[in-house]
Amino acid sequence: MTQAWDAPAPEAGKPVRHNAAGMGRVELSALLASLGEPSWRAAQILSGLLRQRWTRWEQFSNLSKALRARLEAEVDLAWPAIVQSHASSDGSTKHVFQLADGHQIEGVHMPYAVRGSGLRPTPPDIIEEELDRVTLCLSSQVGCAMGCTFCATGQMGIIRNLSAAEIVGQVMAMLLHHGHPPDRPINLVFMGMGEPLHNFDHLMAAFATLTDAEGLAIPPRRITVSTSGLASGIERLGAFAKRPRLALSLNGTTDEHRSRIMPVNRVWNLEALAAVLGRFPLQSGERITLEYVLLKGHTDSQEDGRRLAAFARRFPAKINLIPFNPHEGSGFETPDEARISAFCQLLSDADLPVSVRRSRGQDVAGACGQLVREGQSRHPKTR
Ligand code: SAH
Ligand code: SF4
Questions:
Q1: Does pLDDT of 260 surpass 60?
Q2: pLDDT tens profile 93-147
Q3: Lowest-pLDDT range, 142-151, 273-282, 363-372?
Q4: Domain shared by 143 and 258, yes or no
Q5: Same domain assignment for residues 29 and 111
Q6: CA-to-CA distance for 220 and 129, rounded, in angstroms?
Q7: 3-state secondary structure at position 19
Q8: Is 368 among the catalytic positions?
Q9: Same structural domain for residues 65 and 105?
């Protein structure tokens, strides 16, 4: 389904030059059909692009010389360009990608385990078996329509949805940039710019490509989608037999407080969310992650902690506390360590699985949307 904020369609009458990078089986089959080739070759191209990570058509030794030459002449193979990379002292690298239309988005490469529950406190705390794991934080939109008051991306407004190819492109651009070994396991979290369930069809198309056995073959349980609480999208996601894991950004424990910082709560309030999450069909051992941003004086009281615990008991949940990552002009502050610990302790005393996400890359303008927004204010005419 096309949304009003999807990328503009190509101009009528102009020849379209296709870019195969990021295409899934369906698009590759259609592309091959347009070249008079059989659709089963889609699996060969997918394998070359994602598993072999070939970046030039001449490398596709699984295709005939004639087809390679034709692809070279007619089809592009270009992943999104990384135009800025900011390495943080914790080992993570935040990347800014430039899309074909000039818009910019952010993604983060974290060479350690980040589960659906969020980032673990510090690299040495990571359990051994997961040390070889890499987590990539991905964007789903340019900007975001949800307008959460504490979020830098929310303050940009929505510019457009990312295509499925642009979502897959972020993964491949980061793997290529970091020389990621093919056998090293990958976790994906949709916790960058944008509301993934607002871009549902492209998200699920990208999910199909990222989990495709011919390509990266990422197990679905290693992919987590974080939503601000679009109940209709959560319901839709639950209907898929093969789907990513779910995280809900709760961030408020009364409708009054939550609506003040997350306008979406005026459409789907806490009761509506609890109902839809209670119905969400979970696999054995699966839990829904509740992300909870700690904003000094707004969401960090002991009463909030007790209400959060009560909410989390209504379905299998784990809680991920995220101390606010400050950015200019937000008007919010981060609670001090003692207050964060007391909040965490209350939940752990209530026997709820809880972790605190330390802001990765805080020293490089950490949370989502902050680098792109800084760039915008420095170069207002570039976008
Ligand atoms: N739109 C989706 C996913 C992207 S935001 C969502 O809202 O869930 C990913 C997470 O970052 C959310 O839990 C959000 O509450 C949190 N977040 C946004 N801005 C933040 C900031 N400045 N500091 C800490 N967490 C932030
Ligand atoms: Fe959008 Fe998520 Fe930011 Fe809210 S927190 S504005 S939903 S990116």
A1: yes
A2: 999 999 999 999 999 999 875 443 344 444 444 444 455 789 999 999 999 999 9
A3: 363-372
A4: yes
A5: no
A6: 19
A7: strand
A8: yes
A9: no
Which of 138, 368, 372 should be mutated for ligand 1, with most atoms under 8 A from CB?
368
Q: Which residues line ligand 2 (CB under 6 A)?
A: 144, 146-148, 151, 153-154, 194-195, 228, 249, 368
The DSSP annotation for 165-192 comes to: HHHHHHHHHHHHHTT--TTS-EEEEE-S
Say how many domains are in the chain.
2
Cα(193) to ligand 2 centroid in Å equals: 7
Please report the sign of the dihedral spanned by the C-alpha atoms of residue 8, residue 267, residue 367, residue 277.
negative
User: Among 106, 166, 195, 291, which one carries the catalytic annotation?
Assistant: 106
| Segment 221-259, tens digit of pLDDT | 999 999 999 999 999 999 999 999 999 999 999 999 999
Q: And the tokens for 33?
A: 């059909």
Quickly state the pLDDT bin for 368 (edges 50, 70, 90): very low
> Which residues have a Cβ under 8 Å from the Cβ of 374 and sit 6 or more positions away?
365
Dihedral class, residue 62 (left if φ above 0, else alpha if ψ from -120 to 50, else beta): alpha
- DSSP class of residue 57 equals G
For 160, the domain range is: 79-364
Instruction: Please tell me the pTM assigned to this model.
Output: 0.90
Active site residue 151: no
